[in-house]
């Protein structure tokens, strides 16, 4: 098996820097659009054959070093009693958002059975992958899920979420605990079914001041990551806009920290300390640039990562719709070429 | 005159920390809504009596230490040939966005006459203020204006803007130069008419990696700020999500750097060095929290600012619609109370 990705998670030497992309199965691929023309996104997620098929699409086409199961971060909210829908062109919507402290009490407890579809999708994907590359499972982090549950969708300023947090801290912490319980259950199903690493997406946590992160988020993420690591797989913790949160994020105890493009990789790694692996961090928009510009920037990131083991190449956020497919292929080639040539020890 | 604000811009001792709020004249005030029920936002901006009246609304109601002229950052785009509109509930839209390099050539050069309405609004406001507090003029920064001009509105990932920048760097720099010329012209009119300080809003510049900021934005902002400071007024340079850009932003040469809430004020000031004043940096959502929580956080920011002159209290971004008016009043009171009691030298 190509185990570069898993070795890098554990900060072991690799022959070339491993590379994969968040949302590597997505709208920028024609193969994906063909499936989505006939099936809604929730259908694809919950039909194991479709989820496996979509997960494999980038593996068949590109030389990426890991697969990530096709799913949506909001799936765990459904069995808790939240009504999740995807409106075309509008992104996710929660039709019954959590606005009152009492609503937290009525969230339903979730057991492994609720995520049977996910386990099955992972089993089929693993069979189809036939150990070519490892399979990553994932979930949204409690803050990011709470923000969707409370706002009712995506948000620019997170007024409702933060106001809930400030004005009803007890209900907030109760909500976070319930989310953590659900997420752990969901990820246990994925790991049990064969997920070989887990990524936690705290995509919107960068809207918080460091003091708020420490008080309202940190203990919950830490408890969650401890429970997941106990299952024996490496854990990646990722967010965007997190430059000032990195010292706290380091303390949650993940094996890998995912970085966005706003932080120079070497500086961020120095802040985190080198006892943790890092993943990132090309601006997803750079994939729209001319190839010569992409290559220059890939090279720059690899130079910043240096000879030290423990770097996984990725974008700083998901691949954007409209990204040229040949630029994706070229980026992977540049990563492998320049990391081979930079004498990374085996 | 209450000159706390201007003294703090120059890092001179003050009796209490000055405080004002971005968007302090805005939708959260009933007085403002009454005017807007009868006039579109562009009408208010371009009718000097209305602009002056709205500018004065927060001055009549609150003990803020500065007024800021009511206007919109997109106004300078209109005389350049861009068709700016405000659709209810959707924010600003440019009906003929810049998508081709050639479109930059056809932007019209702008002279002082184009901004006569702004000079007149400032003259009337100064007369109505009668030196109670100083009046701040403002403009959008070239990157933030370019992002609206190219995207055609607000954006989440700035794909079109950055792709323009990466793929057509010559046209990009030409566009930035034209914007800088227009902005300087606009601000000269404001200063000539009586604006006593200038704030430059680079609200969305935090979407850029530091290397991109340095290459595509920095030289233009630096040239612009040098020209404005030559007019003899202090300049505040503000952006959000700028934690990793601060060392570069410091070098543009403004008198004051505006900070958002993601950076602890003391740490950011240490990074900037203490030869520059700072403005900020309460999360605007904190104004929705219970008063006891607001007071605790105001106090925390004042403690971080310490005894050193050169701190202007503000939010980390504009006041949000729906902010409780009595919380705004209380926040101002807390700033004055706690900064008086912390023995700031005169």
**Overall 3D form of chain A:** globular
Q: What's the CATH first level of chain A?
A: Alpha Beta
Low-confidence stretches of chain A: none
Helix fraction of chain A? 40-55%
β-strand amount of chain A = 5-15%
Rounded Rg of chain A:
19 Å
* Sheet with the most strands: spatial strand order of chain A: 1-4-5-6-7-8-9
Mean pLDDT of chain A: 96
Number of strands of chain A: 9
Please write the string of helix (H) and strand (E) elements of chain A: HHHHEEEHHEHHHEHHEHEHEHEH
Q: Would you mind describing this structure in some detail?
A:
The structure is a homodimer of 346-residue chains. In chain A, strands 1-4-5-6-7-8-9 form a 7-stranded parallel β-sheet. Chain A has a two-stranded antiparallel ribbon with strand order 2-3. The first copy, chain A, has 346 residues and is of the alpha/beta class. The first copy, chain A, has a single domain (4-340), classed as TIM Barrel (Alpha-Beta Barrel). The first copy, chain A, is built from 15 helices and 9 strands. The interface between A and B is medium-sized, with 33 and 33 residues.
Descriptors for this entry?
TIM Barrel, two-stranded antiparallel sheet, 15 helices, 346 residues, alpha/beta, 47% helix, globular
In short:
With 346 residues, the first copy, chain A, is α/β, with parallel strands linked by helices. Chain A has helices at 4-9, 30-38, 41-46, 48-61, 101-105, 116-129, 142-151, 159-167, 169-193, 210-216, 218-229, 246-250, 265-272, 291-305, 325-340; strands at residues 67-68, 84-87, 91-94, 135-140, 197-202, 235-239, 256-258, 277-282, 311-315.
């Amino acid at each position: 098996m190509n185990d570069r990705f898993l070795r890098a998670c554990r900060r072991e030497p690799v022959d070339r820097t491993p590379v994969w992309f968040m949302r590597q199965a997505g709208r920028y691929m024609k193969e994906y659009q063909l499936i989505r023309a006939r099936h809604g996104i929730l259908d694809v997620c919950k039909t194991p054959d479709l989820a496996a098929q979509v997960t494999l699409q980038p593996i068949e086409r590109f030389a990426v070093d890991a697969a990530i199961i096709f799913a949506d971060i909001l799936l765990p909210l459904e069995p808790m009693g939240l009504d999740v829908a995807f409106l075309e062109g509008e992104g996710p919507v929660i039709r019954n958002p959590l606005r009152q402290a009492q609503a937290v009490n009525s969230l339903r407890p979730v057991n492994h059975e609720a995520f049977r579809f996910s386990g099955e999708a992972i089993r089929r994907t693993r069979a189809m992958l036939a150990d070519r590359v490892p399979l990553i499972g994932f979930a949204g982090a409690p803050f990011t899920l709470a923000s969707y549950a409370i706002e009712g969708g995506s948000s620019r300023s997170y007024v409702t979420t933060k106001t809930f947090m400030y004005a009803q801290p007890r209900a907030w912490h109760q909500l976070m605990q319930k989310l953590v319980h659900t997420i752990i259950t969901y990820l246990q199903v994925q790991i049990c079914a064969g997920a070989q690493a887990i990524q936690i997406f705290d995509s919107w946590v960068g809207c918080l001041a460091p003091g708020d992160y420490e008080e309202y988020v940190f203990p919950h993420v830490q408890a969650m990551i401890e429970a997941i690591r106990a299952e024996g797989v490496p854990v990646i913790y990722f967010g965007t806009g997190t430059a000032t949160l990195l010292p706290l994020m380091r303390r949650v105890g993940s094996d890998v920290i995912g970085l966005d493009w706003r932080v120079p990789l070497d500086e961020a790694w120095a802040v985190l300390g080198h006892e943790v692996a890092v993943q990132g961090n090309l601006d997803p928009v750079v994939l729209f640039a001319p190839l010569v510009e992409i290559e220059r920037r890939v090279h720059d990131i690899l130079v910043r990562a240096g000879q030290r083991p423990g770097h996984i190449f990725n974008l700083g956020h998901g691949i954007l719709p409209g990204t040229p497919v040949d630029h994706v292929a070229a980026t992977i080639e540049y990563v492998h070429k320049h990391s081979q040539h930079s004498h990374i020890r085996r």
